[in-house]
Please model this.
Amino acid sequence: MKILTMFASLFTISTILLSIVIILDNRNPTRTMAWLLTLIFLPGIGIFLYLYIGQNHRKRETFTKKRKRDYEIVHNILEDQITFTNYGDLLKKNFDDSRGKVAPLLLNNSESPITTNNSVKILNNGEETFSAMLESISKAKHHIHMEYYIVKDSEIGRKFQQTLIKKAKEGVEIRLIYDAVGCWKLKKSFLQPLEDAGVDLRPFLPVTLPFFGSRLNYRNHRKIIVI
Model:
């Protein structure tokens, strides 16, 4: 009798903990409810079903590979920066003792080295931002690398399209990564002229149906332009 009681208690605790895990997994609400009902109406079996087919092992594998690759890239760039800039001399020349002590902390904790010959300009709204972006793109000489969650066939979107086409025809290397879900309404008629001009277009994690499937949540919300 005691064994049955212990087993029932263990099963109840396991079910509760697994239910919490499912709720916190931030998955589609319909799927969350389906798995919770499975745990309730299929005692025991529901736990094994979730452990074997309910978890997204592919997601973990993908992000593990990404973290490893990101570390390798950042580490290599970091070594080059420190080697070719005489990092210690750079700190002594540009920072006093108090700020100079913070620099090694940033370097060791977040692999963020102090750099020079750069500046930051704050853009307060969309009008300022898009104007500055278009101006910078129009001045590009070698390459334009863009990564954006949403690209729209709008007035401002067409300005970017035409500017990029113009620069591509001038021989500037242009690469654009756009999110497949963020741009799911974007028609081929908008993208084709860019491709015809030589722009390298890549959708991020394409999906067959934008509101279904396990890849829906793994989106790229970055908004980056490197010129």
In short: Residues 57-85 form the longest helix (29 residues). The mean pLDDT is 81.
